[in-house]
Amino acid sequence: MTTTAAAEPRVRDSRRRGQAFIALAAVAWSTAGVFQRELSVGAATQVAGRACFAVIALFLFVAVSERGGTLRVFLATGRAELAVAVLTAVASSSFIVALNHTTVADVLFMQALAPIAAALIAWLGLRERVSRRTAVAMVVALAGVGLMVGGPGGSQGVGLVLSVVMTLCFAFTVVITRYRRDISMAPAICLSQVLVVVTVGPFADPGSVSSKDLALLAALGVGQIGLGLAFLTMGARLIPAAEVALISLLEVVIGPLLVWLAYAERPSTTTLLGGAVVVTAVAIQAGDERDEPPAPGAPRRRRLADGRGGGYAQRR
Fold first, then answer.
1. Residue ranges making up the domain that contains 242
2. What pTM, to 2 d.p., does this model score?
3. Is residue 6 in a domain?
4. Does a structural domain hold residue 225?
5. Other C-beta atoms lying within 10 Å of the C-beta of residue 210
6. Radius of gyration of the chain from Cα atoms?
7. Local mean pLDDT, 10-residue blocks, the chain (316 residues)
8. Which one of 22, 26, 175, 210 is least enclosed by Cβ atoms within 10 Å?
């Protein structure tokens, strides 16, 4: 009894620290829009420049986490990890380019749909059971998207298409990482940024990058991606996955708010209403999340450098 009572404060302290780390991760992720709005270079240079700094930050993160096993981690990359890397590369690039064609709120609200889209994909493709709560969340989310897209001033054109591509890529990443719990997200995300540099780099214009642009690209690659993943890693080990999902929604609130305050970029009323409905849907679904055991046949390997909750590590 005494031992249990003495352990309770430590458990509460660990939970508070976990919540704080995830909140800091959400804040780091939410800076993407406000930093991107300050850039004066083209979309290809934005994407490739951010990826260059992200590769450096993520490689150092994996090296520190693995304590000498860095090469082994990357050499262990299999088909599932490569799939995650490709999907994340497409999602990461689509995210930045979409920000050039629509509001930050449109992109972030659409991105928030990823876990619900993942549940739908798993249901259709893998015949994974969908609970009543998740089914309700899907219907609510669909109504939110309808408001965002169908209402006056709603997202449309290239920005909408790229936001949908980004969301679907994130959703497939969630499905893969849920089925293959042995996948280490940090090396896969690092590899994804290498793919971005290789594919988009030839279209970039390094000569157009000013010192201010360089600092902003570094902030996006090191701070928004690298620091966000570091905080996620520390926090996801201390609190349940459902709590990670709920606290991560702070990004969807803070991101548009920062751009609204800094640049008076006010989303349309229908976008705000639809976004609120989407966030509600995600909160409903997160209440149904449980840490499930690995799927039958999935190898049990130690999670490397990304903690629990791999499905939440696919942030841009």
1. 20-293
2. 0.81
3. no
4. yes
5. 11
6. 19
7. 58 84 92 94 95 94 82 83 92 93 88 85 81 85 82 70 92 84 80 95 94 96 90 84 81 90 86 87 73 44 39 49
8. 210
